[in-house]
Amino acid sequence: MTDTVTLPTYDQVVRLPREYGPLVVPPEFEDANGHMNIRHYLDLGAEAIDIAFRRIGLTDDYRATRKQGFFTAEHHLNYYAEVHVGHRVSAYFRIVERSDKIIHGMALLVDDTTEALANTLEVVAPHVDLTTRRVVPFAPDVAEAVDRELAITERVDWPAPVCGVMGIRSQRNRAGR
Questions:
Q1: How many domains are contained in the chain?
Q2: What CATH number is given to the structural domain containing 59?
């Protein structure tokens, strides 16, 4: 049995804070199939996540002074609509869930030209001590910043179109998944 995912509309996604764009897709982004190459979907989604994480406070200064940061433990790309050269695209981000050590989030790439959700990049990002390379809890100020970001994205009236096979393990286990 296959679970179906309800995708948000373009109008729903663009109510989130725009992290990146709009960008007009240049000719060098095109692949042999006549649409934007996979690496650019990944790059644009990763850029949106990076911008959102900087807003949370994960900056070069944070890494240098606290010796902490985030790693990507898992990611999953889904494609919903082709993007072509000359189209305008924008990227958005929302937190799906969090624990005291991990953010499960999603970048959403929209094609502003066709007003369609083009792609999602779902990530699980643990907070780590960069010296020991071990997962550690968020400091209180970081936890507060993550919660502020989560509050923004929880105001939307649609579920994140998650892949269903990744997330925060302890929370999945409590939910019986």
A1: 1
A2: 3.10.129.10
